[in-house]
Amino acid sequence: MSDKPWDGRFAERTDTSVEAFTSSIQCDRRLYPYDIQGSVAHCRMLAKVGVITAEEAETLVEGLWRIKRELDQGNFEFDDSLEDIHMHIEARLLQEVGKVAQKLHTARSRNDQVALDIRMFLRDVTAQIIQGLKALRTILVGMAEQHVETVMPGYTHLQRAQPVLLGHHWMAYYEMFSRDAMRFADGLKRTNVMPLGAAALAGTTYPIDRSYTAELLGFPKVTANSMDSVADRDFILEFLSAAGICMVHLSRLSEELVLWSSSEFGFIELSDAFSTGSSIMPQKKNPDIPELIRGKTGRVVGSLMAELTLMKSLPLAYNRDMQEDKPPLFDAVDTLQSCLNITIKMLPTIQVKIDRMRQAASVGFLNATDMADYLVGRGVPFRKAHSIVGQAVAFALAQGKELDQLTLKELQGFSKEIEEDLFENLTLEHMIARRQSAGGTSGDNVRAAIATAHRELATDDPDQTAGGATA
Ligand code: ARG
Question: Does the CB atom of residue 84 touch ligand 1 within 6 A?
């Protein structure tokens, strides 16, 4: 058992059950690269303002880099009695460079140290996720390009509603994931603020230069209030909100893949490489990947709830409760990243059954609205037209026919305004092409949306992705 950096005022040793209970090392060890970078910057800053000598700083920095190598190579021993990654590195530094290591923690506390580490971690993770989203958005645009002529039924209430282009459907997901990227990028502005120098909660008596530390670590700003610096976890909450929403989007896409690959829909087939079988039913090919993405969404949303509940009612400033911020955060990060990665790999392998989609769009009165619109074009008020077509639908249903399978004579029985040209208005191509209102499913609109998406993807700034269509 090691001596603890804080045990000066203690007469008794910590009970081993307490060490096991309070330790977070199994979880927070993954913060080590950030902890070391933060300590290196802190040393350099202390030397710059004359709190330690340049030579001392050099010894400390070299020792810290050696420890980083040990950690990188997995040659580092962890021990619950040293609680967390911060104390492990400091204790190892003492062995490595001797007494000068005792100066490292001058003008610093683990409270501002851990806040720094998480911000640095999340800054990297957020950038990776934005890149992952970009890859996903690029794939969706490619899929939309392949299907600017593929007609499918659009649904409301999961009932066939009106025909749409599959390209339009894929571009709907492009919009969702573009908003996700913007949300992550926006949260990053508040994550990317440097808290070190708040010390325990009140700031410090040393003449530290926080802006210099920030500059060394690539932060554009320092936090404004020392108490808030160590108590704030809003940036985690914002990240998890964005992550939860993004997972909800992935789960909606997944749900459609599950539905569409069922025999009942039969719109797509997942590739063998991205499906699994049943241990009992030889015929089965199951969509386990999208199912698992749906399932894992609960974990990420749960992490957001855990974190909100953790922070609720905590008095200022730091409280040990906050050590519990890391397990849900890390789990959400890992879950979201793995779901994004597998979606990016799976989507291009999907085989679309174009004929089956078209067939599904051809039955079920998806042209009823267009028949009403036709009547409106002939001066019938919309509500009246709606009712006329409703009666025609009821009649056709009773005959086991579609609207366009009724004879002109039968149709004219519902309205004298109907003429032969109604039939061309009821074709899939016509219905799609006429939906030219901004953001509608016409081929021209979808091609324009794809062109806009290419422009958005060409910039690396998610904020340039304004979303929306040109009206
Ligand atoms: N392991 C702690 C955490 O993650 C670090 C800060 C501990 N500070 C303290 N005064 N006990 O929150």
Answer: yes
